[in-house]
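Priority: low. Protein: Stress up-regulated Nod 19 protein. Input follows.
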Amino acid sequence: MASCFEGWVVLLAMVVLTLSTPCSHALRIVKTKTRTSVFVSPKFVLGPGSVADKYYYDIDFPKGHIAIKSFTAEVIDEEGNPIPLHETYLHHWVVEGYYGRVGSVEPEGTRVEELQRSDFILVRNSGVCQRTLGQYFGLGSETRKTDTHVPDPFGIEVGNPAVIPAGYEERWMLNVHAIDTRGAENGLGCIECRCDLYNVSTDSRGQPLRPGYVGGLFCCYDGVQCRVKQGFNGVKRNLYLRYTVKWVDWSDSIVPVKIYIFDVTDQMNHSTGHAIEHECRVEYNVKESCSATSDGCFDSQSSLATMTTGGYVVYGVAHQHTGGIGSTLYGEDGRVLCSSIPIYGKGKEAGDEAGYIVGMSSCYPRPGSIRINDGETLTLVSNYSSTQTHTGVMGLFYILVADYLPNSSA
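Result:
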């Protein structure tokens, strides 16, 4: 049997051999060196009460056929100092992949869904919300204290030359949505995008807001201004999103995972024919329903989504806004696939801002312990405190799913 193993290269690894197993099926576990790349976005300028909602194309990103192991980000100033949420609120950042025709140039300021399809092909995740939530990575205020690492031997595969169309190249888009709340009359109202505080009646395309729309993304788009206290003076600042990517070179020892994003506002539409259309509205409102002294004062929303193809859950995390108290993803039989709880800050420094969600707990199931069956319908539940009204909140849930386990014949 010794001849079977001659020439194997072990890089920072242990080779586990079961002598009773034939050589051709021996289990090999390889830990590849993780690399780290730190990048900085183009600058965006914010003054007190102002909003930046920027789309940056062909951003700096690790090249080649690789496996992403982690993606984190935070807002910084020109000196590289982290900016606290009570000064600049990071509503969200989103990273999406796409293929660009070689030599093509993206129109400045264009939203990703508006790119010319002949020159640009969007690369979406595996989730059901393809129209609105196609990103590979994305978080918000919780970005500094949310664990995003993908456990070994799993990885998010990108840059595979076999799947990039001829004449195209892989590129990445970054969307940064930030709100400056220095001197704001109502800081919470500004970050929850209350329309009256922004004094807007149309969306970013100039279309009238729908009747009854009181707050959300349609009211805090790029360039609008939230109301600040009379006489407050504050300087404009050049800010940046610093993002850190951890990755390894692709190898056969890595098990690829698929990205799924679920939305608690998803309303499955069965009237479109054979295929079910998912209407993921991304945001919703929480109405005040009881006093702050009441017990069990919360708003609970839920949605259903069917997984055409199942697999093994290796990671999970929710995304909520201020007021969130936790979210859970359930299997069809009621078993808990993952629960994610917000971490609220208690101080003033960046990463621990009082009253803000500064992190979300992540799930790392023991490999093989959480399996989703093909065709299984999942239930997502998102809970918020309803001691006061909240507008434009979100209830998203990210999971990473592997088709097979590392020790299987696949």
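The helical segments are 187-191, 195-198. Confidence is low (pLDDT under 50) at residues 1-29.
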